Amino acid sequence: DAKHLFSSCDGCKEDTIIGLRWHCLDCPSYDLCSKCYMNDVHDVNHRFERFHKSRAKGICVGKRQGATKLEARGMFKGAKVTRGPDWEWKEQDNQPPMEGEVTEVTNWSDETNNDAVRVNWNKGPKEDIYRLGTNGKVDLKCTSPAVGGYYYRDHLPPIKVQIRKSKSGFTTGEKVYLQKLAVVKLQELSAGHGGWNADMERYIGKIGVVQDFTTDGDVVVEYRDRSWRYNPAALTKIQKFKQGDEVVVKSDEHLVKELQKEHAGWDESMISILGRTGKVLEVDSDGGILVSAEGTTWMLSPAAVTSVTDPDPQQSTASGDMGSEDPLGTKLWHKSIESLSKDEQSKSKRVKPLKRMKTDLLRGCLKFSRPLTKRDEQFNVIYVTQPKTAPRNEKKYSSTAQVRSIIPEICLLTIAVDFFSSGLFSLLRDFQRQAHEQEDRGLLNAAQSDDLLRLKEILDANPERIDELVGGHTALHVACHQGHCDIIRELLERGADMDVLDNQGYTAMHVSTYQDESGEALKLLLERGFDPNVQHGNNKSTPLHSAVQEKNETAVQILTQCLDCDVNLQNEAGNTPLHDAILAEHHNMVDMLLDCPRICVTLCNGEGFNYLQLAVWKGNKRAVERIFAKTGNSLNVVKDNGFTTLHIAAINDHREIAKILLKKPGCEVDAQNPHNQSALHLAANEGYSVMVEMLLDYGANVNLVDNHGDTALHISLMMEHVLQRNPESGLELLLGVRKSSASFVAVSRCLLSYGADVWKVNGSWETPLTRCRGSEVEQLIRKIAACGRYSNAFAYFFS
What is the pLDDT of residues 433-480, one digit of tens each? Predict the structure, then answer.
């Protein structure tokens, strides 16, 4: 950390500021450390500059008032931690490694600041200190973050990341996976490259991020829980895709299942898209791709697909990348192709695409462990054999129509197929998938219908299916959605995964806030230790966000009363649940959230709106009144673009809200934004004559000028002139809502009646008198001008 030897903090009185120094531009010799600066010590309306070194040039960051303020979450007091990438303290965390709790953020040495934490591993008296950035070393990894105050996001320096590239073609920051090779082969590749560790086997096929390179060219890959050193020959890059790309889903079912664990999970319905071509619809921030294939849409791991532009998407790499993509093996296919007649071989163009269909159907037969019967040499027919419990009776069907007629019977039959009819394949594939789904849905149906007895029977027979995703949901998700507490208890007692995600990335905690308005499921989950602050992997929404979005007042009440629930967590857009409630105009929820003693009323969302500014922008009168009752002094807080609440009300023509603001003591009716525009300028520019009159009634300066020297009258005359000259040019649409010149005429008349100066010269040396040519108020302005520059406009209007 930088040390500012000759600067002390005027907030906490620390003699030497370590880290960033914040210097006030409006006060002589006033400096703050980062902790005091972020805690709003000193006047937040004063401008500051940031110094990262004692002799560096300061960078102006502006005022803190109105700047985006976010909640800091991470390795603060109360956070849960485990071993991190640079751990070198043997079994200090007990054996096996345990989860510890941070008891203090401290210093590693007298020369550093906040670069270490004190951790208690066993809730005993002994505590140890670990590095948290000291010399670039991080001993710990955070498993459950804690809140550590707030920070001004846009006032901090940007993070600079140095990207490095190895001779083997890998680059730091890119995603890779360990190829699906035999362990023996991986052990050979690891020889002389850091060696092989038995734990490495768990990372085969998993996606990691390239962190660094050794001097020998080996690649250091970081995973969520640790880092490994690999021979570059054992790694494969994850392709980067963009919207519209055509891809082929890999056909190895086991491989795709493993890869999907990192991206939205596996669903048995995905069998239908294995080996199929699809199109990328969307790429999320984690690299996951939304793919449309075979009439269905799935979120897939980028490692589970290959681009169709590759020479051969199904071919393994030179190093044996991911193993064979054909679960049946090539020998089976060679044997089948050899049995083709000469006539069939002449139709080679048909063989390649139809071969893939045959692979999938044969794989389906093997999946259900059903024996294959003999095949017809004509390759046109399907043999259906009854199970062993029935007398053997082979039937031969040569047309799709015939197969359709025996669909009910196929439920009880074993299928063997050796044919190339695409229509028949699609029919059987769809039926096979539907039959499998119907079988799997028994567990979900029991959860949905609150049939506890049936659920127990299924799980007694198939305990491994407790966390199985069917149709994108587990039984726990369904039970929480429906509020069936007996089912939830049974599932939890049987060890259901508390953190399992549905196909949209939501946990059971999220789902419990959707439809169950009794709140009993949510209460039960909280009692069982579920995390009320769990956030969606991509959009960062919490269960409280979901409760607000689903209009579930009971869930909002339960969560706001839960002391462990952080009501200030922000989603990807920077919105807290209160921001969402204000936007949706859920008045009761706004009341509940504002009444929560843990609410931070100064938080801004990603667009820089605090709660009052957002309520004013939305036109939510009730929320404005409630927020005023809670905060009191936030009336003139300036947004990051320099707009006050009155500016926001004026430019949106929210008259009732503007009147509430204007009646408040201390409301600055002539406050100006960075362009020196007042609320009057903004209302005049929009043609809001009633708003203009209201502002003037409350003392707005009719002749105040903006940074172009224009008064509100200059602006209204100019807008009238523009619309008169371009009545059908589409300019009205560019200006926002449809406006007519008449609205600006009304504004000009109002301004003139309140004494607007017709002789006022702007930055272009124009006066309203010179600008009014052709205006409907031209004669009125000329008559006022004829009365003399210092005449009283009121006298003209009312004489």
Answer: 554 455 556 888 899 899 999 999 999 988 989 998 887 889 999 999
Segment 522-548, tens digit of pLDDT: 999 999 999 999 999 888 999 999 999
For 618, the token pair is 């939305």
Express each pLDDT in 737-787 by its tens digit. 446 788 999 999 999 999 999 999 998 899 998 888 888 998 898 888 887
546: left (phi over 0), alpha (psi -120 to 50) or beta: alpha
CA-closest candidate to residue 528, choices 498, 484, 562: 498
- The SS3 assignment for 82 reads strand
DSSP for 617-675 reads HHT-HHHHHHHHHHHSS-TTPPPTTS--HHHHHHHTT-HHHHHHHHHSTT--TT---TT
Residue 346 has pLDDT above 60, yes or no: no
752 in helix, strand or coil?
Answer: helix
Q: Which tokens belong to 17?
A: 């500021």
pTM (2 d.p.)? 0.52
CB neighbour list of residue 554: distance below 8 Å, 6 or more residues apart: 517, 518, 519, 522
CB 715 within 8 A of CB 723: no
Contact status, residue 674 vs residue 682, Cβ threshold 8 Å: no
Nearest residue to 646 via CA among 675, 623, 605, 677: 677
Asked whether 700 and 680 are in contact (CB, 8 A), the reply is yes
CA atoms within 13 A on the CB side of 586: 22
Average pLDDT over residues 516-520: 92
- Helix (H/G/I), strand (E/B), else coil: 430: helix
Between the alpha carbon of residue 266 and those of residues 307, 321, 461, 500, the distances in Å are 21, 22, 22, 12
**Burial (0-12, 13-18, 19+ Cβ within 10 Å), 4:** buried
Question: Closest by alpha carbon to 644, among 675, 606, 683, 613?
Answer: 613
Torsion of CA 167, 168, 173, 177, to 10 degrees: -170
Place of tokens 């890959």: 221
